[in-house]
Design brief:
The protein has four helices and no strands. The radius of gyration is 12 Å and the shape is globular. Helix 1 (about 5-25) crosses helix 2 and helix 1 (about 5-25) packs across helix 4. The chain is mostly helical. The longest helix has 19 residues, at about 5-25.
C-alpha cells in the first residue's frame, strides 16, 4: 500500500511539531532529527504501514529513537 504524498507531508509536519513541543527543540532542529531518523525512513518506505499510525505515536517513536523518552517496559 502506498500513501498519498500530500497526506504524508501533512503527517510529517504534525510529527515534527509534536516532537518540537515535547522536547523543547526548535522546529528547525526537530526537522533535522526527523529527516535523519530511522522512523522517517520506515514511514517513507512504507514498512509495516507506519504511515497509518497516528502522529503522536510516531513522535513518541522518534523521541524513543533519540533517547528523549524511555520505554516503560525497558530496564534502566
Amino acid at each position: 500500500m502506498e500513501a498519498n504524498k500530500i497526506l504524508l507531508q501533512k503527517m510529517y509536519t504534525k510529527i515534527i511539531m509534536e516532537f518540537a513541543n515535547q522536547t523543547g527543540k526548535s522546529l528547525e532542529e526537530s526537522m533535522d532529527y526527523f529527516y535523519k531518523s530511522d522512523t522517517y525512513n520506515l514511514i517513507k518506505n512504507g514498512v509495516s504501514d507506519m504511515h497509518c499510525r497516528g502522529y503522536r505515536y510516531l513522535a513518541d517513536e522518534l523521541m524513543l529513537e533519540y533517547g528523549f523518552k524511555h520505554h516503560k517496559g525497558y530496564c534502566n
